[in-house]
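Title: Comparing notes on inverse folding

I've been comparing how different people in this forum approach sequence design from structure. To keep things fair, I'm posting one structure and asking everyone to reply with a full sequence. Here's the target:
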């Protein structure tokens, strides 16, 4: 265990899968890795039981069948819904939890490993999402009312929120620095290693399980808060003659057609970073101006591979809990990779 004045140098990591994506846990006290990993596994199992749209027994699925009746939900799902509604409000509806039916319509109605195995043709129809303002979350009674026919999808926010919640919980329980990355969406808490948590930000042109192609990248030292990357090139599939991906435009109900293929954002929380990176893809042209107005350091990669950054990335990142990092010193752990998911 490090003393209060030491800056930890040694880290230990565990990698596995949950919530249909990759999980990476890193702690600055190797002796606490196993116990932290057990707590993380329990936390993610609870999140899955509350928020999964692929499980018939999840709380979220029960809302689909509520037929407009108020349904009492667990504090965990209520918190996840509150985060998703706040993301919708702050992004002007570019991130909208009522795209559940649209996700199913484009074939993303099961775990992604199964989605890619189904190549049957489908017919795409332009249909605007019902809209997040239709969802009534009563925090006083702990009830949620979803209009009949509206299906929720918390995929744009729940994963990042789960990373935030886990990192904070583990850092408080273990008393050491903690990094939690879910599908590349990264949250950190506690005392970081010297130089910050080294994270390599690079867009992925294959699946999230494949080794990313070499290309322009940035390595940053994350000291606090969160870093998230959203992209259209990593999680995609083909149905008939249609190339599809998982970022849906709520205005059309179809995969977004964006001038950007990857957007990475740093923010005070991973949930805020994820909402902003996803919204930037949906907003398309002018997204860099929108991010700049919000004071968010960001790195946007165009479909042609051109890299555009907003103020604060990568030379003045301390305001968002980041700092620019050179190559890690000899003997330092390899950078944790932030990928589009």
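Reply #1:
Here's my take.
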């Amino acid at each position: 265990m490090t003393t209060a004045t030491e800056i930890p140098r040694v880290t230990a990591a565990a990698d596995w899968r949950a919530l249909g994506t990759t999980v990476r846990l890193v702690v600055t006290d190797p002796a606490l890795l196993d116990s932290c990993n057990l707590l993380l596994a329990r936390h993610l199992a609870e999140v899955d039981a509350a928020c999964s749209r692929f499980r018939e027994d999840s709380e979220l699925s029960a809302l689909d069948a509520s037929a407009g009746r108020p349904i009492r939900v667990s504090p965990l799902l209520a918190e996840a819904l509150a985060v998703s509604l706040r993301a919708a409000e702050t992004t002007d509806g570019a991130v909208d939890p009522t795209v559940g039916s649209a996700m199913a319509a484009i074939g993303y109605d099961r775990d992604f490993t199964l989605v890619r195995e189904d190549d049957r043709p489908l017919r795409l129809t332009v249909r605007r999402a019902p809209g997040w303002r239709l969802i009534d979350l009563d925090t006083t009674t702990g009830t949620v009312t979803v209009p009949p026919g509206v299906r929720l999808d918390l995929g744009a926010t729940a994963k990042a929120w789960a990373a935030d919640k886990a990192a904070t919980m583990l850092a408080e329980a273990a008393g050491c620095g903690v990094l939690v990355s879910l599908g590349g969406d990264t949250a950190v808490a506690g005392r970081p290693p010297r130089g910050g948590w080294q994270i390599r930000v690079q867009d992925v042109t294959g699946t999230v399980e494949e080794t990313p192609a070499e290309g322009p990248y940035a390595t940053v030292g994350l000291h606090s808060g969160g870093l998230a990357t959203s992209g259209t090139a990593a999680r995609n599939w083909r149905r008939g003659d249609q190339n599809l991906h998982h970022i849906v435009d709520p205005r059309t109900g179809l995969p977004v057609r964006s001038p950007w293929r990857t957007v990475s954002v740093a923010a005070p929380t991973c949930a805020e970073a994820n909402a902003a990176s996803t919204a930037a893809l949906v907003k398309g042209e002018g997204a860099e101006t929108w991010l700049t107005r919000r004071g968010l350091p960001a790195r946007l990669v165009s479909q042609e591979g051109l890299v555009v950054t907003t103020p604060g990335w990568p030379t003045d990142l301390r305001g968002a809990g980041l700092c620019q990092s050179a190559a890690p010193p000899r003997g330092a752990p390899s950078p944790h990779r932030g990928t589009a998911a």
